[in-house]
User: Fold this.
Amino acid sequence: MTGELRVALDSGGIAAGAGEILEELRILCAAYPGLKVIAVGTPGMCYADPQVEVVIAGLPQVSFGNLTPEAVHYIFREFLEKKQFPDQEFLNSKAILIGGRIFGQPGAEPPQYILLCNTQIQGSPLPTEMISAFAAITKVAIADNFGFYNQGLAIQLFPSGAVYANLSEDDLLVIAQGLSRGELPSKKFWLAGNGQTRIASRNCGVINPESLSSAVAAGAYEALKKALSQMSPQQVIEEVHQSGLRGRGGAGYPTGKKWHLTALQPSPQRYVICNGDEGDPGAFMDRSLLESDPHRVLEGLILAGYAIGASTGYFYIRAEYPLAIARVRQAVREAREAGILGKNIFGSNFSFDVKIRLGAGAYVCGEETALIASIEGKRGSPVPRPPYPSQRGLHGQPTCINNVETLAFIPAIVLQGGQWYASIGRGTSTGTKVFAVSGHIRRTQLVEVPMGTTVHEVVFNICGGLPPGHNLKAVQTGGPSGGMIPASLLDTPLTYEDILAIGSIIGSGGMVVMDDRVNMAEVMRFFLSFNTDESCGKCAPCRVGGFQLRHLYEELCGGRGEQQTIPQIERIAHAMQAASLCGLGKAAPNPIFSTLRYFREDYLACLK
Amino acid sequence: MGEPEPTQQSSGSDAICEFIGNLKVENDNLILALHAIENRFGYVPRQSALLLSKRFSVPLARIYEVLTFYHYFRTTPSAEHTLTICLGTSCWLHGSEKILRNSQNLLAELPPEERQRFGLSEVRCVGCCSLAPLVFAGKKVIGRLTPDKMKQIIEGLLSNRGDIS
Ligand SMILES: Cc1cc2nc3c(=O)[nH]c(=O)nc-3n(C[C@H](O)[C@H](O)[C@H](O)COP(=O)(O)O)c2cc1C
Ligand code: SF4
Ligand code: FES
Assistant:
């Protein structure tokens, strides 16, 4: 047996027991020298933790999830050693099988393995005669899911990995008959992908994040080599400019422009900072990227340093992410040993090194001026802008701050060109965006989709909608600074402008699905407790206004509200929005307006 | 991973002096110094703040200004059993506020000497929302919590059974 078993060991996987699974597999594989068990980051399907992806010559590339050590033994014996699918009874109760891990081209050879799946969200199980029709041809199993939904019945053939979808039961029977005569399914049903496009998260769940050689084998630092040998810093900025990339930390400011403005400042010393504070509750994009592919983010930071003329970079990572910190430390150490950090990188004139700084449980430190203060060892209190950090930042020098995900796009943009990146997405929202979908959702997971994909496509067609029993009420984006997207507006494309037009923001990428049991005034009470806990207290509109609002919501939700309560809330919210010093206070009223706009009846219900 | 486990035993003044004396951090980094102390002692003892104030040549008030701003640092020793419940949005939607309230009530009913063994606190999302709602028992994450499961965890810790899963 040759190949590898990829066990997802990000902090979510570890918390779910992936460490034990890894140990079991290492013991089982000891007898097979060609078989490697590697610890990877998250492939995105957090709901399936602990999970393993099987990439072994001659076997279909599938994942098994919700594993226990006993299940691993069974899978090893049946699937790896006997080369047959685990018993369907086992797959229905002891572990799940996930297909659609690769989307192959239709091959010419007859399939050796077949996976079936009903991708309809409320679909019924496939009838047994259907399964027997395929069982007569070759080895067959029913997958828990193919990573996409609402595309009828689907089938995946191996070794090609080709997926055919949007099939009816009759279509499937025709395919079964065809296959038994050696004919492949009609190409009109062939599906090229699942709606996701992975750029920033491309190597997540694929490479070993604690190994430089594993990252390099997957193409890490190619872009840096290219930039240092063939491109001037201005050319790098120009590519980023052409890509149309906008900051993924929340504000959506054009990255190329920010770099250009920082590079313009006359100063002998400049800094670049990677913002890994990720404080929005329900967001785990940056954690996943840092834990699963730290070298990509590091490469992005080095390229940013080269472009703007900085010799020192910082990672600022929140202390609640110890694994991300450890993996970034490891990546920096290995890169330094390999000469990717330090003096004269790759023999060029460019020298650059990075330092790692930790947050300490303060959401406001994600705000750029507070973050700078925190790096300087002070309280994380924001200061008024201008001057912007690009003018006067860390230690008074021009400083460029970018979000983790923003930086993770840079290597691909440098390598494949700004034009290529700009060709993905929609309008001025180019490229892809990583979202973390959680809450009342069937599949809590990370998705990376072209911007312009609709909310509905993400929530339903990729994440499988809500668990049975309840309907969607709203999708919350932008964390406590964002807003609610009501069920009636789910067809809104995920672009900065379209989401803003309906009263929310793309934000950093957290997407929390709420079902019809949730009262939106209650959600606001909860958000305000967050905002008042996290307010730094520096300016009165946020400090005092926040507490007043919190109090009003507590009254309202406690059944003590009066007719005056709602107008009072609106008045304070307007004042707070207009007069607060930093984004925290300015944006805290956003979800208030959004819930009042779409869910006023929830407020009125509290008054009764 | 990477971070030393906090140890409670040797927080005598010699240990603190020695630790601060050997601390290798750059001068611009009070926060990393505080992290190192918190990791070592489980909180930031007053004596260490005094020593830091000398070491960084800043007034003690500056140290406390920073120390008290950040939720992550504690100024009193942590309890024998720390339970940190996530109040991020996903965990909240899955009932973590109620679990927190139940736990508070449960602990309030205990005799004071038992009660003191527990430190109950909150955190705002640790990025493992697929396990919502979750609690940290020490450094161990326990996910898909229910009020019953939480009750079992507390009872298990009370009777010093290590098996909290
Ligand atoms: C209260 C507050 C919290 C923020 N938290 C974060 C954060 O956790 N991560 C982040 O990248 N940006 C955060 N931001 C945005 C940053 O201030 C800044 O705009 C961003 O890091 C710039 O990077 P980008 O241009 O790549 O998006 C926050 C802003 C505010 C006002
Ligand atoms: S708006 Fe709030 S968080 Fe921002 S500076 Fe003012 S008090 Fe601090
Ligand atoms: S909300 Fe609890 S881990 Fe994210």
